[in-house]
Amino acid sequence: MDILNTGIEGIVAELSVLDEVMTKHDLIRAGQWDYERVTYDKKYVIKEGTYYLRVFGYTPDEDIGTREAVIHLKTPAVGKHYYPHGVEYGEDEVYPEGLIKDCKATLKAVYEELQTFNLAK
């Protein structure tokens, strides 16, 4: 499920800044990157299951592996993990209200902190 109107989509920032800010808010990049795309995950393990808040980004012209890339953030999403298939984002999934509330609070905090670093201004 996409989380709309967070302000995150459209932010442009350096990868090193994103790594620092996202980590402060428990969004971890770990191995979720390739040459052009990056994903930051916050894992939730609650009684209803395992969920991930995901913030996606891409770089149009550089290699993320160089750590000098400029990243364009996209619409964040929350999905439920199903073993062994992976994360499903379908609108027919049940997303607990408390989970969505925490996801939105996390995204708001990230958005506010990234404003001083946003290169898209």
Helix amount: 10-25%
Count of DSSP H/I helices: 2
Largest sheet: 6 strands, antiparallel
Output the radius of gyration.
14 Å
Number of strands: 6
Overall SS class: alpha+beta
Written description of the protein model:
This protein is α+β, with helices and mostly antiparallel strands and 121 residues long. It has two helices and six strands, in the order βαβββββα. Strands 1, 2, 3, 4, 5 and 6 form a six-stranded antiparallel β-sheet that branches. A hairpin with a 3-residue loop joins strand 5 (77-82) and strand 6 (86-88). The longest helix has 18 residues, at 97-114. The model has no long low-confidence stretch (mean pLDDT 91).
Helix/strand layout:
Layout: E1 12-14, H1 15-24, E2 37-46, E3 49-58, E4 70-73, E5 77-82, E6 86-88, H2 97-114
Antiparallel strand pairs: 1-4, 2-3, 3-4, 3-5, 5-6
Task: For the structure shown, list the relevant keywords.
single chain; 121 residues; alpha+beta; 6-stranded antiparallel sheet; 2 helices; 6 strands
Kindly summarize this structure in a few lines.
The protein is of the alpha+beta class.
